[in-house]
Design a protein that fits this description.
By secondary structure, this protein is an all-alpha fold. The chain has one domain: 434 Repressor (Amino-terminal Domain) (Orthogonal Bundle). The protein is about 60% helix and about 0% strand. The protein has helices at about 5-20, 25-35, 35-45, 50-60, 90-100, 105-125. It is globular. This is Transcriptional regulator with XRE-family HTH domain.
């Protein structure tokens, strides 16, 4: 088996994160895209490269901008700390934990807290 391309892997991780954020199963996303769940799993793992048209349809289905899948590209490679790092397994755990919070006020307050932490971290990094 050929090695997994880093870009395909990162796109797959972000596809999975967006799917989990929407609380969709592999089968449900596959059905929306007209694919098998095995094929979506291969996209998420980076084993198969997703076509532009399928990625576009996935973005629409998952309610994310197409650029969401490429947040790891570009500025980070030039040393810009404002770019998003590649998704990890811990990110999936965090997303799943956040999705279990049902109270919208708690979710909103947690979002504000995370934004403040991120802003503070960026300010420290740029000093």
């Amino acid at each position: 088996m050929p090695p997994i391309d880093e870009v395909d892997h990162s796109i797959g991780e972000r596809l999975k994160a967006a799917r989990l954020r929407r609380q969709m199963t592999l089968a449900a996303l596959a059905d929306e895209l007209g694919l098998t769940y095995q094929q979506v799993h291969k996209y998420e793992s980076g084993r198969n490269r997703i076509s532009a048209s399928t990625l576009f349809k996935a973005a629409e289905t998952l309610g994310v901008e197409l650029s969401f899948f490429f947040a790891f590209c570009g500025p980070a490679e030039r040393g810009d700390t404002l770019a998003s790092p590649p998704m990890t397994g811990a990110d999936d755990d965090l997303t799943a934990a956040l999705l279990r919070i049902e109270d919208p006020d708690v979710r909103e307050k947690l979002l504000r807290l995370l934004e403040a932490i991120t802003k503070s971290d960026r300010l420290r990094s740029s000093s």
